[in-house]
Design goal:
The chain is an alpha/beta fold. It has 12 helices and 9 strands. A 6-stranded mixed sheet has the order 1-2-9-6-7-8, sandwiched between helices. It has a 3-stranded parallel sheet with strand order 3-4-5. Its cofactor is pyridoxal 5'-phosphate.
C-alpha cells in the first residue's frame, strides 16, 4: 500500500441527533470519534502528513517530531506507524503514563516538558521533520463532508490549534454559505480574550485543564476573521456537558467535546429566545475509554477542584428550555 492510499480520505463520519424535543432548532453532533485513530485530530494529522509527503519533506524511515498532546499525538502516531516513520512527540507537563500509553502502543515516543509553552522549542531541537500542527492552516475535507450531509446555521468546534475553525470558516466563505462558525474556549485559554480584544498574539501563559483544547497563546493557525463567535466555557461546565452527552448518546466523550456541546447549547438557547429556527452542529472530538478515568470520574473532578453540580443543573434547564 502506497502513501497515497494510507492518506486517502475515509468514509464520512455520522451525524448524531441530540434530543432537544423539537421547537424549531436541531442540534446535531458530528461524531469524529469514528475516525480510524478515534478523534477529530485524525483529519488534521492526515493533511499534515499528506502535505509533507507530496512536498518530499519526509520518506519512509524518517523521523517526525511534534509538540502536542492527547488526540493529536495519537492521530499522528497512527499515521507514522502506517507510513513506516519514527514518531517523537513532546507533550506539556509532567510525565503521565496514561497520556503516553496510547502513543507508545502505536510505536511512538513521548517526552514531557515543563512549562507547557516550552514544548515548541524542545521539539525543534530534536532531529526530524517538524510538521508544526499549530502553524498555518491546512485544507482538509471536514467542511465539504459536513455540508454534503446537512446545511447548518452554526458549526461549533473546540479551541485547539485553531485550524479546524479556520478551515471551516474559509470554506464557508468561499462557497457563500450562510453558516456561522463558533469556537468553544475553556478556562485559561487565550482564544476568547484574544478574539474579544482583537490581539493576534494574546497569551495567558497558563495551561488548560481540558485535554485537547485550550492554548496558553493564540496559535498561528487561528483566524479571528473567519470566526463569528468565541464562547468561553467554564471547565466544570465542560465536564458536566461531557457527562450529559454520554448519558444521552452512550458516547464516553472527553471534556473537550463537552466544551463544544456546552457552547452549542448556549447557541440553541439564544436562537430559541430570538424565535429563530435552524440547525446547530457540534463536533465530537473523541469518544473512547480514556475519558472514563478523567472527566466521567467524580474523584478526578474533585482533585481538579471542579464543582460539576451547578452546571449539571443548568444543563438540565437548558435542555428543558430547548425542548420547549
Amino acid at each position: 500500500m502506497g502513501w497515497e492510499d494510507v492518506l486517502a480520505a475515509g468514509e464520512p463520519t455520522p451525524l448524531v441527533e441530540f434530543p432537544l424535543g423539537g421547537g424549531g432548532v436541531r442540534l446535531l453532533l458530528k461524531d469524529e470519534s469514528k475516525q480510524p485513530s478515534g478523534s477529530l485530530r485524525h483529519r488534521h494529522a492526515r493533511a499534515l502528513f499528506r502535505r509533507a509527503m507530496r512536498e518530499g519533506l519526509i520518506a519512509e524511515g524518517d523521523t517526525v517530531v511534534e509538540a502536542t498532546g492527547g488526540n493529536a499525538a495519537v492521530a499522528q502516531a497512527w499515521f507514522a506507524r502506517r507510513l513506516g516513520l519514527s514518531y517523537v512527540v513532546v507533550m506539556p507537563g509532567e510525565y503521565s503514563a496514561a497520556r503516553a500509553r496510547p502513543v507508545e502502543e502505536l510505536g511512538g515516543e513521548c517526552r514531557f516538558v515543563t512549562p507547557p509553552v516550552a514544548i515548541y522549542e524542545a521539539a525543534r531541537k530534536i532531529e526530524g521533520h517538524f510538521p508544526d500542527q499549530f502553524g498555518r492552516a491546512v485544507e482538509h475535507d471536514l467542511a465539504e463532508e459536513l455540508f454534503g450531509q446537512v446545511r447548518p446555521d452554526w458549526v461549533v468546534s473546540g479551541a485547539a490549534t485553531g485550524v479546524t475553525s479556520a478551515t471551516l470558516g474559509a470554506w464557508i466563505r468561499r462557497q457563500g454559505e450562510r453558516c456561522r462558525v463558533a469556537v468553544a474556549d475553556p478556562e485559561n485559554s487565550a482564544y476568547f480574550p484574544g478574539w474579544t480584544l482583537d490581539v493576534a498574539d494574546y497569551a495567558t501563559g497558563m495551561p488548560s485543564r481540558i485535554e485537547g483544547i485550550g492554548r496558553p497563546r493564540v496559535e498561528p493557525g487561528f483566524r479571528a476573521d473567519l470566526v463569528d463567535l468565541v464562547v468561553p466555557v467554564a471547565d466544570a461546565a465542560s465536564v458536566a456537558a461531557a457527562r450529559l452527552l454520554r448519558e444521552v448518546t452512550g458516547l464516553a466523550v472527553g471534556a473537550s467535546s463537552g466544551t463544544a456541546l456546552w457552547a452549542a447549547l448556549e447557541l440553541v438557547e439564544r436562537m430559541r429566545a430570538r424565535g429563530e429556527s435552524g440547525t446547530v452542529v457540534s463536533l465530537i472530538g473523541d469518544a473512547n475509554e480514556r475519558p472514563l478515568a478523567t472527566c466521567h470520574d467524580d474523584g478526578w473532578a474533585k482533585a481538579k477542584g471542579l464543582d460539576v453540580g451547578p452546571h449539571e443543573e443548568r444543563l438540565r434547564r437548558l435542555v428543558d428550555v430547548a425542548g420547549g
